[in-house]
Fold:
Amino acid sequence: MTRSRTMGVTATAPHLASPILAFVLAIAFLIPGVAAHAGNDKGLSKEDKACLECHAKPGLDMTLADGKKLSLYIPAKAFAESTHNSSGCDGCHSEIDMKSHGTEKKIISGKREQSLALMDSCRDCHKKTVKQYEDSVHAALVQEGSQKAPLCSDCHNPHATRSAKDMAGHAEPVPCEKCHESIARAYTESVHGQAGDEALVCTDCHHTHNVKAASLGENLKNECLSCHRDAVAKHKVWLPNTERHLEAVSCPACHSPKAKRRVNLRLYDGVARQQVSEKVGVPQFVRMAQVADMDGAGLDGRALWSLLQDFNRSGEEGKMVLRGRLEVQTGVEAHQLAKKSQAIKDCDTCHREGAESFQSVSVTMAGPDGRPLRHDARKGVLNSAESLGSVGGFYAIGSTRIKLLDTLLILTLIAGIGIPVAHLAVKWLSNRARAKRAVAAARSAAQAKGQTSPDDRRPGGNTPN
Structure:
C-alpha cells in the first residue's frame, strides 16, 4: 500500500509542478537580479539591495584602461554574511554618486591601481592593522614598485570577509603561493605540511600583516620554540653547549637535512646587542663592501677588518662586529623540514676539516625593510688569521681551524712542556756538577792535610818517641 501510494504521488506530481516551475523560471528571466539573490539578501539594507539588483548578476564586469576585465559581480549571500555588511556599500564606496552611477563612464587604469586606491577605505576602519602592514616587508616591496606584493584585497575579498570571531579556529585561505609557489610546494611535502588538519599555515610563523624578513633577528627561532617548548631541554640531553648551538645554528640547518648550508656573518651592534639595519634613504653597505673587496673576488680577512673599521669610523669604536650563524641557503630549503628522526645529529657533519657547511660564507646587513643585503666572502676567510679581529666570536672546533694558530699552539705546548723539563735538567746537571766539584775539593783538602812536603823536613829535628 505504501509503495502504490508513493508511486501514485510520484506519478501525479509533475503535472502539478510543471506550470508553477515554468512560471517561476519565466519571472526569474524577466526580472533581472531576482533569481540571483532571492532569499540570499537577508540582513541587507534597502540601499544595498538596490546595489545588488545589478551587482548580483554573474558575469557583470567592466573593461579597464589596460584592456583587462574587472568583475563587478558580488554574490548576495556572501556579502550578507560578511563583516562588511554592517558598513554597507557606501561605507567603502562613498565617492559614488547614485544619480549618475551606471550611466557615466568611469576610467580605471588597472586592477592593481584599483586595489591601491581601495586601501584608503581599509585604513578608515582598520588603522592599527594597516599600520602593521605598512611596517612589513610587503609594504616595502609595494613602495619599491612591486606588482606582486600583496595588498589588502589580494588576501581579503572585501565583499566576503568574515569576522575574526567567525573565523576562530579556521584558517582563512591566504594566497601566499601566488608569489611563493616553490616554497608552498616544498612546505606541503614537509613534516609540517603533512600534519593534516593540524598543519601550520603561513601566518602561524610569519604572522598576518606585520610580515618581517625571515632572516632578521631571532624571530623565526622564537616561533619554533613557541610550539616546541621542550626543545632546549631535549637538546641538552645529547648536544654539548646547547645554548651556543641554538644561538649560532638556525633550526633548518639541522632539520632540513638535504639543504645546502652557509655561514652568514651578520653586522651586529655590539653595544645595543641587535642586528644592524640600514636607514631609509642612506644606502651604505653595498658601496662599502665593494670598496673593501677591491678585486671582486670576495671579502678576505683583511677586507673584513677594513669593512668593520669603515663602519666604526662614524660611530663608537668597536661598536660594529660580525656575528656568524650557520643557516640554509634558500627559503625553499628552510621549509623542507623533515621528521625529527631524520634531523642531523652527527657532530662530524660540521666539526671536521673541510666541512661542506663552512665552504660558503657571506657577509650581510639588513636593509631598511629587513631583507638581507649580501656580499660574498672568500672560501677560506674563516680559516684566516687575519679574520681573528673580525669574526673571533664564531668558532667551530675542527672546521674553522686556523693553521697559524695550530702552529703557535703546538709551539706553546712544546715550550710549556720543554722549558720546565729543560729547567729541571739544567738544574739537575748543575747540581751534579756542583756535587762533583765539592767531592773533588774535599779530596784535595784531605790529601793536603794528610801529607807533608819533603822540603819542610829539617835534619836533626824532633821526632816522635
